[in-house]
Design brief:
- The complex is a heterodimer of chains A (456) and B (383).
- With 456 residues, chain A is of the alpha/beta class.
- Helices cover 52% and strands 11% of the residues of chain A.
- Chain A folds into two domains: 198 residues, no CATH class; 138 residues, no CATH class.
- In chain A, strand 9 and strand 10 form a beta hairpin.
- In chain A, helix 4 crosses helix 12 and helix 11 crosses helix 13.
- Chain B folds into three domains: 63 residues, no CATH class; 57 residues, no CATH class; 181 residues, 3-Layer(aba) Sandwich (Rossmann fold).
- In chain B, the strands form three sheets. A six-stranded mixed beta sheet of chain B has the order 10-9-8-11-12-13, sandwiched between helices. A two-stranded antiparallel sheet of chain B has the order 2-5.
- In chain B, helix 3 packs across helix 5, helix 5 packs parallel to helix 10 and helix 8 crosses helix 9.
- Classes of the chains: A alpha/beta (456), B alpha/beta (383).
Amino acid sequence: MTELDEYVGRIESLAQRQGLDYYPVDFELAPQSLMTEIAVYGLPIRMPHWSFGVRYIHQLVRQSMGHSKIFEVMFPGDPCRAFLMDTNSLAENALVAAHVVGHADFSKNNQLFARFHEMAGGNIVEKAAAHAHRIQQAIDAAGLERVEAVLDAALALESHLDVGGELHRGRYPEFIAEKTTPRPTSFQKHFQQLPGASEPQAVPLGLNLGPQRTRVPPHPEYDLLWFIANYAPDLEQWERDIFLAVRAESLYFYPVFACQIMNEGWASYWHARLLREADFLPQQTYLAAIKAHSDVVRPFASGEETALAINPYHLGFTLWEHIVERHGLARAREVMREEDDFGFIRNYLDRDLAGELDLFVYEVRQGDEIRVANRDLEAVREAILAPKFNFGAPRVAAVELKPDGGLVLAHEHSSDGRGLDAARAKKVLEYTRRAWRRPVHLHTVNDRGEPIELAA
Amino acid sequence: MTIRIAAETPWYELFSRGARDWLRHNQKVRAAVRESLPELLAGADLISRPGNRTVAVPVKFLEHARFRLLDAQTQTGAGQGKGEPGDVLRPAREEGDPQGRSGGIGNGEIRFVVELKIDEIVDWLWEELKLPELKPKRAATLDEPDYVREGWDKRGARSRLDRRRTLKEAAKRHAVQDDAVAIINDDLRFRQLHRRAMPATNAAVIFALDVSGSMDEAQRRLAKQFFFFALHGIRRQYAKVETLFLAHAAQAWEFDESQFFQASSSGGTVSSSVARLALDVLQHRYDPSRYNGYFFYASDGENAAEDRDAARGALGELAGLVSYAGYVETGGGATFRPRETQLAELFGELKAKGHPVGVSRLGSQDDVWRAIREFFTGQAADD
């Protein structure tokens, strides 16, 4: 048994005594190459696509310049799977193990994570690998070009799903449910007819054509991946599988995305606390671990006094410390269970804390000049949350099928505040068209706010 | 609880998924570059460095498009640190600094250059322009004796020892002998060479350039580009291509490739001089029965009036010898010409007589591709 084994065991029992409650964690030491790929793909094995290749090169460059070091990656599930970088020092790994235990507690208890866990099961790593395997089979059968065309469309739309919806979702009902007229109550009977008026004539209902078919889509449909998988004319089964595979993986990423500040903060809070109480660690290891901790949760890069992005580890850590201090651990656990980042920031980032952390809103002006705009609490909260709405993507819905089978998409520019970048949107429509096999239209507005229609 | 370190080569070491997708990206970039190749290459100085077999084309990473909002008029974000509202965190870019801070390696900007092999480019162009393959002169597909490898022998020069074959022999002997010696002389096998008649696939390409005072820098550049692709088009077809560079004003000289395009003279234009020189070289150095001769001539077309008959005679002889003669007239696009130039007329006559001749004009960059296409389709049709 190695030292690390021993430490991890003792950290876990410490965590359990502190009331952390989590699915077992499967730790694995992994080399830099795998950690890089996990950072790029989001999962250890994922479907092949050229766009990952671009991210991969960027990641390699960042790493070679020392801008990015990955200590650990953890996949919530049952069991949770944690990959620790094999070049971490013993102290770093002790810290990282404690951090992972914090994540494991969070992902089992937070309601958003729990709902997605319930829908998808706790083995995303294996599922993604199975998707990748099936896609490889599709490549062997249909050829790389065709599979790539489907992935171009599916991955471009990966954020366009209904995060409030179900993973396994059936098609729309074929027919509109017949409205059953409720039997008139005695009250209605009494007042339907004024005294002295004649008996009301039955209103003719027109021709009875039997049950009416549902219009597709019956309402603006934001779950674009699901919609294409189910309603694209002439989609082959393997293509449909690809859309649904991308959708399942994307849904898995949503809680991680929507709880990033809370989740990283919670894990940082617990690694700090567990290490403080880990009297079994030698002094040197402890000091090295605390040093690693302060590197992770510091707000600015070294030598800087301001940051134009907020470190989620730092913000979350500070908020949780504050909550535990003021309201106690039991209340903190309640918050952890109930909130996501939106509620967390809006309810718990208060004026004092924002002032203490020196948070501000900045503006980029002409010539890329950046100025501090204000320190208004509401504005700070919204600036933190702005990139998180709707999975970070514009709101685009399928609204209509044309008689020729064409698909009409509409962008909700009023809620997003402005139109779509037309060149990119056109590209996405081209990707989509290849899967849909009929013209695809999109309504949005241009930079002057005038409605425009793009088509491919 | 245990931390696993796999005993065997772990799955993730078997191949790099990141590298796989990166290579695929690069393939797509190449394909994209290939589609816009004629435009990309129009500006490139391709033969300025002879011997350099690749061209580097700067490109961007491919972007996998997503729906994205238009940039807001004023972008905002959340930050952290000291400072009062209105404080400048980062000053505006200086005028005349278009790259700004976003450039440079400091921000992770990666410059990305695709290297293309000249041969590959020419292959693509041939596909892109749908150019036919050249047809060698039938008379030139003469059989020419050459050495080929054939069979084995127990004796031979050491340099032709076939190791694989020798070991095979040794293995056979080991199978039947007990206590065998590793390799004995009897096991040795040497490759043998025999003389066999091989079809000749030689070409001699003569580039002739008018360097008289009236040919300016831009016209030479066009001629150079045209010659470059013509040469590589021919190289696709023939195993052995000899090139010959002739420049002329009132007189003609032979140059080597590196000096050819720098040559200049202030004299008048006497086209017959270069045609005579070409004839002379063809007859003496490149036996017309063994070589496919190609003659490409670039000029502004203004030959001296008194040279007309001499030029007609020399060019006529030359056209009879070569597989194909191409004439490109430079500078014609911009200037107004009331009539055909003398050389255009002469080549026109040759063409009318049924000689394999092509005439084309190079007014601008775009004409290079058109001219290439004309020459190569013309050559295939003539045959």
